[in-house]
Amino acid sequence: MEQVRADGFDEFVAARWSALLHVARLLTGGDRQRAEDLVQEALVKLWFAWPKVAEQAPEAYVRTVLVRMAARSAKRRWWGERPVEQLPDRADPGDVSSTVAERSRLEAALALLSAKQRAAVVLRYYEDLPEAQVAQALGCPVGTARSHASRGVARLRQILSDAVRPVG
Amino acid sequence: MDDFERDLSRLLRDTQQHTPYEPEHRQRLHAGIRSRRRSRLLWKAGGSAVAVAGLSVGLALLPNMLTRAQPADHRPQPATSSTPSQDSEPTSDSPDPSTTPTRPESSAPATTTGGSTPPGGPSTTISPTPTATASESRTTSAPPTPPPSPTPTTAPPSPLEETQEPSASATE
């Protein structure tokens, strides 16, 4: 029983790991370490809820957990980081490219939004979810979710256009 | 959805970096699951222990509270008889007026008869009486009314102190 549960869980995690990590990274404004911590915590929660949600929508469950934990962790001033002797490996050698520059610009812009606005933008424009599901994941009314998304997009429009605008 | 929103959507998807699910991720995840399971077990054990302790304390206190309600009626009796009777003496005199006469009577024969008459009880009170009665007469207003004539009650027990007198008289 436990083995079957573990197998199904591992299959799901292996299939969705990369996407979940990307969502978490967007939700944290590009903080890779925090994104990994968020995914880890969300998947631990998923493990205990796995018998209930395995047959339904495990990804929706993880997404909701991720969004709420990201909003909660954005309020924290310390995330349990501790100094280490060696710095972890950062980017791959092939990362030095326009894609990386673009991603960095996007993540920097996302980091300037509030946690709710960021979550609404990511769910609406990356996950392509309808407003009702965005509201459900955020735990707020549809109108509020729509407001978060539109304000987030407006702010991103301003930030990204300022970044692209030539100096002088 | 305008152009910017379409660009934003594309940007959000294109920046996805493929990150494989490696064994170290799996180990870390399962270590987290084990840790969470332990902490949940501990919380459950602690919670049930607290619940059992609270229940047992409640059950232990409940009978005491029930039994404590019953003797509340009997408590005033000894309390009024021993200490507060001194203060309540004038008020409690009403039921038995014999108490006030008895006290001077007991002191009266003691002073008058000296060591001659009674054995037992009065003899013990006799020796302190010369000094004690003087002091008592000043402090308490009882001696100023020494009607010596009725001598009969030598029996009124031998109160050594004023505090015990009312109790003795009350018991009579």
From TrEMBL, chain A:
One of its GO terms (biological process) is DNA-templated transcription initiation. Gene3D superfamilies: 1.10.1740.10, Winged helix-like DNA-binding domain superfamily/Winged helix DNA-binding domain. Residues 105-156 form the RNA polymerase sigma factor 70 region 4 type domain. Residues 20-79 form the RNA polymerase sigma-70 region domain. The keyword ATP-binding does not apply. Keywords: DNA-binding, Sigma factor, Transcription, Transcription regulation. GO terms for molecular function: DNA binding; sigma factor activity. Belongs to the sigma-70 factor family. ECF subfamily. NCBIfam families: SigE-fam_strep, sigma70-ECF. This is SigE family RNA polymerase sigma factor. It comes from Streptomyces coeruleorubidus.
Automatic annotation (TrEMBL), chain B:
Residues 1-26 have a biased composition (Basic and acidic residues). Residues 143-159 have a biased composition (Pro residues). The chain crosses the membrane at residues 41-62. Residues 80-142 have a biased composition (Low complexity). Residues 1-32, 68-172 are annotated as: Disordered. Signal peptide: none annotated. Keywords: Membrane, Transmembrane, Transmembrane helix. This is Cellulase. The lineage of its organism: Bacteria, Bacillati, Actinomycetota, Actinomycetes, Kitasatosporales.
